[in-house]
Amino acid sequence: MNNRVFFYWAMAIYALLAYAFYPVFHLKVSSEPEILSLYSYLTQGFLSGHLYLNVEPKPELLNLVNPYDPALNGPYRFHDASLYQGKYYLYFGLLPVLSIYLPFKILTGYYPTDGLVAFIFLSLAFIVSFHLLIKIRDRYFPDFSESYLILAGFLLAFAGSEPGLLSLPRTYEVACAATICFMIIAFYFLYKALHNQYRLRDVFLFSLCLSLTPAARPNFALVCLILIPAVLIHLVYYAPKVNWPKLFTALLVPPITVVFLMGLYNYLRFGSVLQTGHYWQLSCHDVIALHAELADLTKIPRNLWYSFYYYFLQPFTVSSRFPFLGLRLHNCYYVVDQDYSLEAVGGVLTTTPIILIILALPKLVSINFKTKIGRKPLVWFVLFLAIVPLINAGFLLLLPFAVQRYEADFLPYLVILAILSFWLLDDYAGKKRWFARLKLLFIILAIFSIVLGLSFGLIYWRFT
């Protein structure tokens, strides 16, 4: 094994061991669903031949004047399940159940814990994204040293939201982890399609993995609505016309099929193809009131201001208690300005400052489009990737709450864009004197981002 391959394997093994370390208390299987593992209960329900959970609502809950009022249902509710016509259903999407929980149970006879499932999803996402960066480096930046890839590997593994998702693995974190995994795999196949004459298999697998992401995080449907037409237009301009029918079929059949199946799943549960069950969710918040608030467009300017501050600018905390760097922790009921809810959250510009280099990306894209024709596939890949954080961050800014785990909807993709921006900038201005100082600053900020990401994973251990 040469030094290059050794370093790649060493980086990957270290990251996977670190990933296993965070949920170490949860890496197990059980013969019965783990307490509060909603996906395991849904798996149990499917194996019993129905779509609701194998948990009977307490009579005290059903006898309440308003069983959806969190002030009344606290002692009786099955937290975050959806109560509909005397049965508990799951608002969260099917993707984790169909991809891991159900096959795992059928093959082994055991239920995987949420920690194990999150570990599998995020480990796979890291392996695929690291392999993708290796391919990009080897093709477009062969003169870059191995240290660039090692730094990129650490950033991929720890500078995003992954340590935090792993350290407190619950249904919510599993949904985020599944979405990251399938989105990363989708972009891996998109990269291959852009570099392999739009091979039919690559286009199909890109579309399939992308189309499945709303089955874990529904807001990714917005990404699909923008990204799939964007790729379709790209195919019209760049793919051979003779291949259009097959390529368009490969691109459009997966989302159409997924939409149909998700609509059917909703209809069989709630009598409506559009109803996911969120309206009837039993939470520490009044979800029915939340729906009314979401319909109040006058709150959007306030939401934009608060959400931008919390998701992008809120500083992390420093304390004398290990791990020394952390988040401001709030309970489920904490609100700002009467009806803006807040959980622990740190602004990504303060916790992951390397993403600031993305500000140079528009100029770099323009330069590479004009002067480096051979890099057009990479530039298109970067532009398509940028759609994900733009859409998701924009959507989250509109909502009347801020939650740290939701940064997983955009931060991992910003980290990849930051790495590619740095590589493009180095290739463009690497010999200029000012870049040496910028390079040093980027490395310092990268190390800071990695350390902070690792710390965020440790702060939740007190809850395990």
In short:
The chain crosses the membrane at residues 6-25, 88-104, 116-136, 148-166, 172-191, 220-240, 246-268, 304-324, 344-365, 377-398, 410-428, 440-461. With 464 residues, the protein is mainly alpha-helical.
Features:
5% strand, three-stranded mixed sheet, mainly alpha, 464 residues, Glycosyltransferase RgtA/B/C/D-like domain-containing protein, globular
Total helices: the number is 19
Mean of pLDDT: 91
Major sheet attributes: 3 strands, mixed
What form results from the Cα inertia axes? globular
Based on CA atoms alone, the radius of gyration comes out at 23 Å
Give the number of domains.
Answer: 1
Strand order of the largest sheet: 7-8-9
Number of strands: 9
- β-strand percent reads under 5%
Percent of residues in helices comes to 55-70%
Helix/strand order, N-terminal first:
HEHHHEEHEHHHHHHHHHEEEEHHHEHH
Task: Decide which structural class fits the backbone.
Answer: mainly alpha
Poorly predicted tracts of residues: none
The first-to-last residue Cα distance is 40 Å
